[in-house]
Amino acid sequence: MNRKQSSPRFRFAFAALLLSALLFLLPAVRSGDRRLYLLAALVPAFMLLCCTVLARLFSLDRMALTLSLFLCSVGIAAFAPADPDAAVAQALRCIPGMAALLIGAVLMRSLSSSMLSAVSSAFLGLLMLSAKLLVPTFSVPLAEAGLALLLVSVASLLSGRGSGLALIPGFAALILLLTGGEIALAALWGLTFLLLIFAADGRILVILSAFCVTVFLFFGYSRLFPADFKAADTGSLNMLISAGWTGTDILPGELPSAASLFPRLSLHFGLLFAGLTVLLFLPLSLRGIFIATSSRTRFHAVISMGVSLLPALQALAALLSVFGFLPFPGVCFPFLTSSLPDLCAELFMIGMLCGISARNEADLAEDAHLAMLAK
Length: 375
Description:
By secondary structure, this protein is mainly α. It has helices spanning 8-31, 34-57, 62-77, 84-110, 115-129, 131-134, 143-160, 163-179, 183-200, 204-224, 235-243, 262-269, 271-278, 281-294, 298-322, 340-374. Helix 1 (8-31) packs antiparallel against helix 2 (34-57), helix 7 packs antiparallel against helix 8 (163-179) and helix 9 (183-200) runs antiparallel to helix 15 (298-322).
């Protein structure tokens, strides 16, 4: 009698659950804090619930969901050794983030390309990007959420109404990001937008025109505000290197106070583990590209390509900024952030990817049903 072998998907999910539990158990055994023992039980249980029950109910892509939830659990564990209260607060931030993921999945399963969706998503996205300009005292970061909505508008315009109209919200977002001082997000959005134009249109004239306008906007802004283009601070990098590859004990006051959790993760668990965690963005992006190539419509293909490229480029920019190769200090890795709006926006984009994957599976099931009826 042959024994059934477990699927690679099951082994991958089990490894993610086990590693997430160990990330809290090791600091819990060391400090004896009950909150860490509670997180060691609740975080893997929440991941298991999402990857089984919720994934089946909402037809979520299990690989993308498991990778994103594991990255969120690593963000929670970054607080665990030094600040258990902050770890609990970060875990609570993941709950509305998971709600945003489900909203994105449901939205993509029912949304199709139309002028109404293009105009409404462009209006909401540009409104979010201009919030700080309209209300200077407004401090909630909504830039990533606005870019997620603008991806819907750009994809809808690129899918059947030509690249000319798609250039309007794309360059409007770029101008608003530069005006608001979001240099890193402006560069990431500009590169993502150019790649989407290249993939959806392919005409040399359109690509060169979009590239020239993007370079002109950045060149003009760098001339007007040269202080914003400054070299990255290497003080955090020197602290990480001094901590060694296996982590060290650093007091909470000595940790960087930015929203990025990568310095905390490196200081407590070592640069080696932090680097291996960053490598998980590669299979997440490859999964998104696979979903994009499997989509039946250009609308969903462009959206899935956009929500795959934007986090991947952000992770690359954050890694290069840490080592001082890019003049963008303060760039956060996706999911490794203590900002609730950014975390919700990133999980919302993963939900969009899961919704498109569900549509692809529904299309394949319909094809199989029609093939059976044709016999």
